[in-house]
Amino acid sequence: MARFRPRLAQAPKCVRPGPLPWPQQVRWTLDHRSRVRWHSAAPPPKSSESVAADEIAKFSRMSSEWWAPQGPFQILHLMNPARVQFIRDSVARYGLAHPTAPSHAPLQNVSVLDVGCGGGLLCEALARLGAKITGVDASHENIQIAKIHANQDPRLTQAPLTYTHTTAEALRDQAQQFDLVTAMEVVEHVCNPRQFVATLLQLAKPNGLVVMSTISRTYLAYALTILVAEHLLRLTPPGTHDHAKYLQPQELQAMLEHQGTAQVLETRGLWYMPHQARWRLMESDMGPWGTQANYILVARKLPTTTQGS
Fold first, then answer.
1. What are the domain boundaries of the chain?
2. What is its main location (predicted)?
């Protein structure tokens, strides 16, 4: 019997996505209390160097379930508190926190861009902490759900929270920059991760932060995220992940630090505790073992004077 050896495949060639068979009528189920029916056909996904049309179509089909706690995104619902904790700690630890920010709004006056925001799980949490946040996604359906859900909370309608159907590359071409750029569980779904990472850095202000979370390409990650999560426990739909697209921490760090553009400041493992139904941030002193599956890191964009040509 041939020994299974998962390996990183070559990045698929990106092509300009053509029209997709979007449904003419979609029911968006936000929760058990409210249902919103949307009657217009969605446009095809935005095109860019990194957007993979098949990935956008896949997540667009599931977009109505973003805010269903027991739906296909339940893992992200459970992971969100740990991700928010890491971001909040990074802002305080690495000098982005405003000195006059109140304790209940530690991200006040911090401009944040969340790339691949989906239905807005992270955006809403950061908005409640005072961030001036922009969420972008190449899926029109995801953006519609994010807007509808945010409008249900009067606190968020008054918050500086903006959702836009666009791509990171489009914002880069507009020369937009932010104090903090996040891309959570996104890089493993793009078709050109190196270019995508470079774009994220261009969207960060000098000395700004980039926070990314993803999955390491290991045997353990394959077992946990595909065999167990997708096929055994059905926590996520089968086909959600592609092990060949996972990036090991040292690979992602090399992309971020290419030509001296950034410095990775901290990398932490994220582990799911099934007996507690929550995700836990692992201690940074655990070494490589702690990042064998899911992990999250923060990098600082270095000033232009220290970047390579």
1. 46-306
2. mitochondrion
* Residue numbering of the annotated binding site: 83, 116, 137, 184-185, 188-189
Nearest to 208 by CA among 130, 109, 301: 301
Place of tokens 């956008």: 56
Pairing verdict, β 178-184 and 262-273: unpaired
* Tokens of residue 226, six digits: 């595909």
* Residue numbering of the annotated binding site for S-adenosyl-L-methionine: 83, 116, 137, 184
> Coil, strand, or helix at residue 27?
strand
pLDDT at 48 (0 to 100): 62
* φ, ψ at 232 (rounded to 5°): -90, -60
Can you give the three-state secondary structure of 189-251, one letter per residue? HCCCHHHHHHHHHHHEEEEEEEEEEEECCCHHHHHHHHHHHHHHCCCCCCCCCCHHHCCCHHH
User: CA 182, CA 190: separation in Å to the nearest integer?
Assistant: 15
**Is the separation of the CB atoms in 147 and 119 below 8 Å?**
no
Q: Is the pLDDT of residue 95 over 60?
A: yes
What is the torsion angle, in degrees rounded to the nearest 10, for the CA atoms of residue 295, residue 280, residue 32 and residue 155?
-90
Tens of pLDDT, residue by residue over 31-66, are 333 333 333 334 544 456 677 676 667 666 777 789
Where is the binding site for Mg(2+), in residues?
Answer: 185, 188-189
Residue 192 pLDDT class (50, 70, 90 cuts): very high
Distance CA 167, CA 188 (A): 16
pTM over 0.70: yes
d(CA 288, CA 269): 9
CB of 183 within 8 A of CB of 212?
A: yes
CATH architecture of 46-306: 3-Layer(aba) Sandwich (3.40)
Q: Residue 254: what pLDDT?
A: 97
